[in-house]
Amino acid sequence: DRAAVLHREGVARYYGNVRAWQDEDFIRADQLEIDRPEKNLVATGNARSAYYRLERDLGKGNRQIVPVFATADRIRYNDASRRTWYEGSVRIRQGTDLLDAAFAEASMDEEHRLIEIVANGNVVMTQPERLARGEHIVYRVREDLATLTGNPAVVEDRQREAITRSEKVTMRMADGLVRAAATSESDKRVRTTHRIRRDPARP
């Protein structure tokens, strides 16, 4: 709706229903600031971003392009470090997978492909058959692995009817395979609960 540009300094601010593109990536917000010399971009207010060139491993050598969409109160991007920071009411979606957190950081490679997401603060990861909760998560895109830590971290697998509690839980996103381990001397035990199905034909 409105823009203020300092061409000599390479600085610009856009206000009101702002939309911006870089290659196939997209961002929109109420306000956008671009600092070309510092290679910074800051989007504030109902900020949304999209990565369209993300490949995901589907197993057995199969890979598929699955875009990642994110919303936050504030999004910061630095092109020199190829990092994006999401601040406040963060929600990141890839296909049917959903990640909610207070803060998140995304890293990209030289070709601007997403390689890792780190999130902190009331982390909740939701899949159609699984729910994971903790305080910190690291998702490595190429390995399709999410490592969740908390006090404790909890993974509920509705398909297998199992609940795993531990200080550290690693989950393979494609099939929900879980590995759990305690990380401190105070809690050396991993707890898993399974629901036993009763055979109605037996007394």
Strand-pairing-aware structural class: mainly beta
Number of helices: 0
> What is the C-alpha radius of gyration, as a whole number of Å?
20 Å
Count the strands? 15
Oligomer: single chain
Strand residue percentage: over 45%
Alpha-carbon distance between the two ends: 72 Å
Q: What is the chain-wise order of helices and strands?
A: EEEEEEEEEEEEEEE
Low-confidence stretches: none
- What is the overall silhouette? elongated
**Mean pLDDT score:** 85
> Main sheet, how many strands, which sense, barrel?
13 strands, antiparallel
Helix content: under 10%
Describe this structure in words.
- With 203 residues, the chain is an all-beta fold.
- The chain has no helices and 15 strands.
- It has strands spanning 2-6, 11-22, 25-35, 40-51, 55-59, 62-65, 68-78, 83-94, 97-108, 114-126, 130-140, 145-157, 162-172, 178-181, 191-194.
- The strands form 2 sheets. Strands 1, 2, 3, 4, 7, 8, 9, 10, 11, 12, 13, 14 and 15 form a 13-stranded antiparallel β-sheet that branches. It has a two-stranded antiparallel ribbon with strand order 5-6.
- Strand 5 and strand 6 form a beta hairpin.
- The radius of gyration is 20 Å and the shape is elongated.
- The N and C termini lie far apart (72 Å).
Quick gist of this model?
The chain is mainly β and 203 residues long. Helices cover 0% and strands 69% of the residues. The chain is built from no helices and 15 strands.
